[in-house]
Structure formats: C-alpha cells, structure tokens
Amino acid sequence: MTWFTGAAAYVVIWWLVLFTVLPWGARPPTEPEIGMAPSAPEKPRMWLKVGITTLVAGAVWALVFAAIEYDVISLRGTGV
C-alpha cells in the first residue's frame, strides 16, 4: 500500500466512523430556543466525537492495512 492509498483509505474510514459516532448522546433540548431547530442536539460535544472518531478510525485503518500488507485481501486484479 502506498502512502497515498493509505491516506485515502484513512480519510474514507474516518468519515464513515464519524457518521456512525455523530448520533451518540445526541438529545434534543426539552425547550428549544426561539429560532432553533427542535431536533438540534442540546450538547453536541463535537470535539469528543472527533477524538473518538480519530481513535476508532486509526484502529480500523490498522486492521485494513494489516489485511492488505499480509495478503489477507488483495487489491490487485487477477488479470482475467
């Protein structure tokens, strides 16, 4: 895996994990402010979610990297 392929894989994995983590702990306020969407979370805690996303994406990327490097899965065509 080249550095570019590894970086591209990490970015894709990071975004997938972020969209999985975003709903965690999201609760709408009991009484939303005027002009605020009633479904907007009261405390989104984005920095916590970004940190969790980075750690989980790093672990998933390491598994994907190992699987590719040790030929568990192959990204090369068979030539057929």
Structure notes:
The protein is elongated. The chain has one domain (3-28, 37-69). The protein is built from two helices and no strands. It has helices spanning 3-21, 46-69. The relative contact order is 0.17. The protein has 80 residues and is an all-alpha fold. 54% of the residues lie in helices and 0% in strands.
pLDDT averaged over residues: 90
Uncertain segments: none
Instruction: Kindly give the count of domains.
Output: 1
Radius of gyration: 19 Å
SSE sequence, one letter per element: HH
Helix/strand/pairing category? mainly alpha
Can you lay out the helices and strands and say which pair or pack?
Elements: H1 3-21, H2 46-69
Helix pairs in contact: 1-2
Task: List its salient traits.
elongated; 0% strand; 80 residues; single chain; mainly alpha
Summarize the entry for a quick read.
The chain is mainly α.
